[in-house]
Amino acid sequence: MDEPTKSLPQPLRFEWDPGKAAANLKKHGISFEEAATVFDDPYAAFQTDERYTDTELREWIIGYSNRSRMLLVVFVEREQNLIRIITARKPTSQERIIYEEAP
Hints:
- The protein is an alpha+beta fold.
- The chain has helices spanning 18-28, 32-36, 93-101; strands spanning 13-15, 45-48, 58-64, 70-79, 82-89.
- A five-stranded mixed sheet has the order 1-5-4-3-2.
- Strand 4 (70-79) and strand 5 form a beta hairpin.
- The protein is globular and about 35 Å long.
C-alpha cells in the first residue's frame, strides 16, 4: 500500500476521453472537470490501484472537489505533470476512512 500523501509537479494538466467523461457524468453524476479539482485538496490521499499494475500504473486520489464533495478519482500520470482521468465517483465508506486517517 502506498503512502497516503503524494507530491505532484505543478502546474498539473489534465486530459480524458470525452466519451468516457460523458458516461461518467451520466453514471456517477460527476464531471471530469470537477474531478480534476480534487488534486487541489492539500489533504488528498493517494494509492496505487493494484488491479492494473501489470498493464499500466493506475492510481487513485481521494479528496474534496471545488463543490465540497468527497470524490475518488482514478488516474494515470502520463508525463511529469499530465494526468489522464479514467473515472470519478463517490468513495465507499471504507475508502472515506483512508482520507480521514491520512496524515
